[in-house]
Amino acid sequence: MGNAVILGNTYPVRDKLKALGAKWDATAKAWIVSQDKAEKAREIVASAPKEKPEYTGKCLKCKGPVKAPYLVCYACKNPGYSQTQSNRRRQASDECPQCGSRTCSRAWNHNDLCDED
Fold it and tell me: Are residues 24 and 67 located together in one domain of the fold?
């Protein structure tokens, strides 16, 4: 007799699966249960509440998606913010891949050669 793999939205019913004798396999990110209890485990997972969607509303200004408690998206709330500014800040804090320095020009402009050469 083998084992069965149980997948799906199992987090809300994990205690019921444990009580059934299922074991969590962190490598496979799935529950493992004996074959004779597999059908009962699948019924338990099927009865689990559905996952909430990540975005639950629309921005009052631009009609884009926003998360549950918010009425206005981040871009509308902070009009000076842009994704390119965020990317520049992230690149500016990088270390040079050749010398490890944060002060050489390659840390600021990844197309330049390293100052340490």
Answer: no
Q: What is the pLDDT of residues 82-106, one digit of tens each?
A: 655 444 444 444 555 566 665 655 4
Q: Which residues contact 54 (CB under 8 A, 6 or more apart)?
A: 67
Domain match, 40 and 10 both: yes
Q: What is the DSSP letter of 97?
A: T
CA atoms 91, 94, 100, 103: torsion sign? positive
User: What pLDDT was estimated at residue 41?
Assistant: 94
73 and 92 together in one domain? yes
- Same-domain status, 79 and 37: no
- pLDDT single digits (tens) 59-75: 888 888 888 778 888 88
Report the C-alpha gap between 60 and 76 in whole angstroms.
Answer: 9
Question: 36, 17, 15: which is closest to 7 by C-alpha?
Answer: 17
Q: Phi and psi dihedrals of 53, rounded to 5?
A: -70, 150
**Residue among 37, 58, 41, 50 nearest 7 (CA):** 41
70 and 100 within one domain: yes
